[in-house]
Sequence to fold (211 residues):
Amino acid sequence: MIRPAREGDAAAIEEICYRTGFMGEDLAGSGRFGDRKLFALIFCLYYVRYEIESCFVAEQDGKVVGYIIGSGRAGTCAADIDRRMLPRIALRLFAYTSWRHPEAFREVLRWRRHQGDGCPPPGYRALLHINILPGYQRRGLGSGLMAAFTAKLREEGHGCVYLETSNHNQKALDFYRKCGFIELARKAGGFWSGVDDFEEITMGLRLPMHQ
Fold:
């Protein structure tokens, strides 16, 4: 079942974000980033807390197993995330993560050094992030989430949406292409330590206004 997200879904969304956080793979037990709460603060909780009207979840047998989150304000979203979330992230980072999960602390500092300008591709005002637990992929849930999210974007008058992924997440790339996304940009980067051939890929989708 695909339904609008609720505030009570936050814990499940945190878990899914972490379980798919290493370029589509599970971070649990990897030794790369042990602080799940910090990971969620950085990558998903802003949308659940401040733009929940744009979030949808996939639920099976009463369990949330996937989500799609995003914003129709791509041009201002990055600044809003910084304003609302950076104080929480900094507090967690220095008061807890630095001594409890030093590997995560180092990774976050590295991310800040490699952070881009946060500008969306020209003409794109909406962005999305989608993740589904590994055991529930390839069941049509991703297509259902994408359909719900893009329908809402069309209702709001958006004609396109973009996302960012990497060359290491082949399952996601195949899914996005199946949904009609095309590659807009590709650039080499060093997001994850120890992944020297990492490329950040930006993909975009033009939305038909009537469907």
Q: What stands out?
A: The helical segments are 10-19, 36-43, 45-50, 74-100, 102-114, 141-155, 170-179. The chain is about 40% helix and 20% strand. The mean pLDDT is 92. Residues 74-100 form the longest helix (27 residues).
